[in-house]
Design a protein that fits this description.
Two copies of one chain form a homodimer. With 200 residues, the first copy, chain A, is mainly α. In chain A, 63% of the residues lie in helices and 4% in strands. Chain A has a two-stranded antiparallel sheet with strand order 1-2. In chain A, strand 1 and strand 2 form a beta hairpin. In chain A, helix 3 crosses helix 7 and helix 9 packs antiparallel against helix 11. Chains A and B meet through helix 1, helix 2, helix 3, helix 7 and helix 11 of A and helix 1, helix 2, helix 3, helix 7 and helix 11 of B.
Amino acid sequence: MDPSRLEQQLAFIKELDRLKLVQRKSFVSGTRRLETSAEHSWHVAMMAWLLLEHAAPRELDADRVLKMLLLHDVVEIDAGDTLLYAEADAQRAQRERELAAADRLFGLLPEDQGPILRALWDEFEARETPEAKFAAAIDRLQPLLLNFMGEGAAWRRHAVTVQDVYEKNRHIAEGSPELWAAAEQLIELAVSRGYLKHEF
Amino acid sequence: MDPSRLEQQLAFIKELDRLKLVQRKSFVSGTRRLETSAEHSWHVAMMAWLLLEHAAPRELDADRVLKMLLLHDVVEIDAGDTLLYAEADAQRAQRERELAAADRLFGLLPEDQGPILRALWDEFEARETPEAKFAAAIDRLQPLLLNFMGEGAAWRRHAVTVQDVYEKNRHIAEGSPELWAAAEQLIELAVSRGYLKHEF
């Protein structure tokens, strides 16, 4: 007998539990405990909700932004997390693993529901729609904020320079010039306080 | 000078980081690591999205359900988590702490935004609207699922009996008779496998 819709949904929901075991590269502020991808996903969803008024263009489909951010890291359940500043080879290998993970994970859901999530994940990854650009901006602003709060400990650990941070975060401007201006201020403040360096 | 809107929003967003330090009573499945409230909040938001079709009545404001679940535990940043099965005195003291936390935390936001979050939190707590009832159902189904996946370790640790579980979870039916039927099956399976007992 085919599993019922609810059984299929619960199978996916059980898998989601494992995103709590994927560790990111940022510390929870005030600690040396690495943030998990599930925690990050919650934090960015809250941020997108609260900061939506700073999006450009202002009229976004808020529901799509929120859902994109809730699910954007789900593929890490199979694929793990890779440092944003990793080499191109590592990034490509990660991309392969994430595509396979998307096939497997979204494939657990009922056949009318899996493709909705897959389309949202693809949209986020392509970063072409205003919703995806804003979601991507939030996804970058969050670790920037955390690393600043942690006085740069995570940047130092991975020898991330000011130039790296500018290069990888500049696209925040595509989702929100206002948030990019705030991010630039934060980066400059991080430099002036010695949290971030021009070279190691 | 008054802080800008964005500064107020970022102050709140920084506080949110601390929900990653609040430990719940459930284990992440396959581990002896307690789930954090931030992880739980993400998990229930995903569940509400995926399971919305099982809500009664079917036509809910999905956006409100999602946002209610994203923020429902934010007050634990100041108030901590209390066992669902705690004594009435402990529950009352927790309620006092949560109200004070709501005043402080939502008060950090711009004056047109804080009350929106506060109203959603109050709505969740009152459990009177269909949206709040469904959100509450999901909030209960999630630890039930986790504790089942963990073969009852969290129930045993806190000497939670079958009767306790029925009493505290029965209101799932108000949000979704279908999900309550599934929950009842899960509870009965937990009993038959010895994960849950009638007494300790």
